[in-house]
Amino acid sequence: MAVSYQWSATRSRSGFLTQRGLPLFLCLFAAGLFLALAPDTMSALHDRWTELNGTYSHGYLWVPVCLGLVVYRLATGFYPVRPRLMGVLFVGFSAAIWLAGFVIQLGLLQQLALPALLGSLIVAGFGWPALRLTLAPLLGLYLAIPIWDIFTVPLQNLTTVVSTFAIAQWSIPAYIDGYFIHLPYGIVEVAGGCSGLNYSLVAIVLALAYGQQRQLSTPMTLLAVLVLLLLSMVGNWVRVSALILIAYYSEMTSSLVTEHGLFGWAIFCVFYVGFLVWAHRLKPYQPKASSAAQFKATASHQTAPVSPVVQLVLGAATVVIAIGTPWLAQQRVQSNWQMPESWSALAAPGAPVWQPGFHHYDLQFTHQIEHAGIELTLGQRVYLEQTQGKELVGYGNRIAPATDIVQRDTRELDSGRTVQVLELNASGTRRLVIWTYQLGEATAVTDVSAKLRQLQEWLRGRSVTALFYVQTPCTRSGCEAERAALGENLAVVDAWLDQRSLYAPPSRQNAP
Fold this sequence. Notes:
alpha+beta; about 50% helix; 3 domains; 3-stranded antiparallel sheet
């Protein structure tokens, strides 16, 4: 993007400090304070940015570049300073998005809100013209946020097709089974890391930085991005094809078969040098004489300086939001939750053989109970507090492996609660499992609905969640006897949920 710059429209140091320096300080102070009070968000990004040969290992290099450009353009760019109250509202909206991500422990949503929050702070302190001037580096921040993994599988498929075509041209005997290439001496897998997504992201980053350094126009910068992106993809195809050839001719003994991180970057550097040779022909942006005259004419008609009082008031509002949002998130955590008295109504705890695949919970309750001649296990996994990697609804938690599920049926009980009835076949043993997520006073059985219900209950001051389940082995396929014992409407399960409610008093005092 071609942008015109000067030190300041205010021309004096005192004018700069009041018109640019004060809102710039308040903007950076509010953003820094927000991140300091929300360490979990940055911790998750840190983990991705420090992965060896990771997809987002460019984060610690790219983010300072983008933030430096934002500060530079705010300080030296030519634009009228016009703080907007709407920006304060946008700050609140961005903070609310982050808060929602914190409550439902969706780290990606928290991270996506950060550049939007910074852009909102710019609107509040400087106005819309300043946002337009800094929009490119603000959007560039999203290249360091792990939202691009959706392209891993398409790039992996494309790499597999190209590499198998390449080895066919070399007449290498191989059997292709999806992402696995069976050679006479071993198997080579085109894994997710072979997709080349990391090279593609670094290519975009380098091309954007090159366009900024050369002061290329927007179309020329986009052309540079497209060319280097294509070169990075071709380089990755060369890398994977070369590794397959090395694996074949070395009979899988070469160290590159297992350790090829530096090998990939060496090939990338070769293609990047070729890009630099080509891109040197691109001409920097040169404004026309009429544009320069219009620039000077605009500079002579500046708006009235903004009162420091107005800037302080708007800045103070954004700082309050920056402090208040993480503080509110921490204050609403129910660490002082008390165990309901109704929980003592059930039988003594037991030690069942089968366990659901849930981890990192705070409390575990398991009870053996007999009902209608059937031995049942009632279980609960309670999460008093949730953080990244320690949440009820997460990738690492599942009631049972998908391969074990024979039949699945979602039921709504008379109380309005939702449960899911599963018939499992685990290691040759048939098992009937009835389960639900307990989210405050609500229930859900799907991940999306559970996240939404969790947010609603958190706003009502009920943040404790749990997994509730009833399970029993079946005497025969279909689990007809066990289903009949529990009843068609599962009223007994409703009663047990009353007794194991996290907050609400039980509507039924005694389980059937």
